[in-house]
Write a structure and sequence with these properties.
Layout lengths: L8 H8 L5 H13 L1 H18 L11 H10 L2 H8 L11 H4 L9 E4 L2 E6 L8 E7 L8 E3 L3 E8 L1 E3 L2 E3 L4 E4 L8 E2 L5 E7 L3 E3 L2 H10 L2
Antiparallel strand pairs: 1-2, 2-3, 3-10, 4-11, 5-8, 5-10, 6-7, 6-9
Bound molecules: zinc ion.
């Protein structure tokens, strides 16, 4: 797997500090489980953080499941490199507890022509939403902007927009200024994991009209 699109440094730092909303932490944890480069960067940030805070008295906190899984992944970077090379089915390890090991067994719900989704339950849904989205081969999503950040991890197939082509393991880490129209791979289509903060802003009147029914 050759990963060319990574989360930006601010996202890695927020993840390292444990301050990322759960939906985004789940996307980060999944990407990190697939990406040795970000795993190393995160480990470095955490070592710096530990050095800064080692004199503080530790308190026990309950972490959301994806974050707990991510911490477990960071436990031993070298050992994980070997173990994480094997991803059972095509679901990253941090997501398996929530959706199982196989994308084909996800209970997809059709939300429009050539588009299906599966919403993943969160402990705190007030800070973002997490969903799997499946797009049929060659299908374009309506052009949209965002009312908050959006972070997308490709799990199968690929999509392309004006910023490039995104393949399995790649992350599109977008802020609210970006407008884009992703088009799924003409042969494989695309399955991705998307964290969003706020609703999408569709440009076309038709897409806005059906938005209440699709949940996007
Ligand atoms: Zn990465």
């Amino acid at each position: 797997m050759k990963i060319t699109h990574h989360p930006d440094a601010a996202s890695l730092m927020s993840c390292s500090a444990g301050s990322m909303p759960e939906a985004f932490a789940a996307v980060m944890a999944s990407h990190i489980s697939m990406c040795p480069s970000c795993r190393r960067d995160l480990a470095t940030m955490e070592h710096i953080g530990t050095a800064l805070f080692e004199k503080l008295v530790p308190v026990s906190v309950s972490r959301p499941a994806p974050v707990a899984a991510m911490r477990a992944l960071e436990a031993d970077v070298d050992e994980q490199d070997a173990r994480l090379a094997v991803i059972a089915g095509d679901v990253p390890q941090p997501l398996m507890a929530a959706i199982g090991a196989h994308l084909d067994k996800v209970p997809w719900k059709r939300v429009g022509p050539g588009v299906w989704q599966h919403q993943i339950a969160l402990n705190d849904p007030s800070r973002g939403e997490l969903r799997l989205v499946k797009v049929a081969p060659g299908q374009a999503l309506p052009e949209h902007g965002h009312r908050g950040n959006e972070m997308t991890l490709i799990l199968r197939g690929s999509y392309a927009d004006a910023s490039g082509t995104y393949k399995p393991g790649d992350v599109a880490d977008l802020d609210e200024d970006v407008e884009h129209q992703p088009i799924a791979d003409p042969v494989e289509g695309c399955i991705c994991l998307i964290a969003v903060q706020g609703r999408l802003r569709f440009k076309s009147a038709m897409a806005r009209l059906v938005q209440p029914f699709t949940g996007f």
